[in-house]
């Protein structure tokens, strides 16, 4: 049996390989999520000069919806995705890097906002990724999450659980519980809403130290 660390490493290699294949068509594949991304980002408040971390940035579709004047740190495990994200926008100062979202090369409390869109259901260790997001986000920062989660208080439908092993190989897990991921992370959910025919969740989170 592989150890936890080697299992994560194998998952990362698989993710890097398949997303290298997906890179040329990724924008087309995620076009149905464009409105949801825009809605998620519109729920955040930005000031000129803010530093925005985009976790699992892909070729950078989130950049299309960020206001001009913010700085962007875009990280992804797949070099082909990072190359596309680095040159996507002419209205943002983009710093793009190849990085594991579970071990971000970013200082504590150093970003004003984090976008985690369609990434937590893909990574090998989503709990660790949430912990990293909490670590790098400033105490008064904000986090946008867009992904497929089971309904609160459930384990997902029988069908969803039955097809999950195949879905994990092809694209992502279908059985993540957002509340369980957030619990103990140092973050709190301020808002959540369903999107895309109720199959996806848009959530806004903040560090627990933030008042309000």
TrEMBL record:
Domain Methyltransferase type: 53-144
GO BP annotations, alphabetical order: methylation
Coiled coil: none
An example molecular function term from Gene Ontology annotations: S-adenosylmethionine-dependent methyltransferase activity
Keywords, sorted A to Z: Methyltransferase, Transferase
Pfam families registered for this protein in UniProt: Methyltransf_11
Signal sequence segment: none
Protein name stated in the entry: SAM-dependent methyltransferase
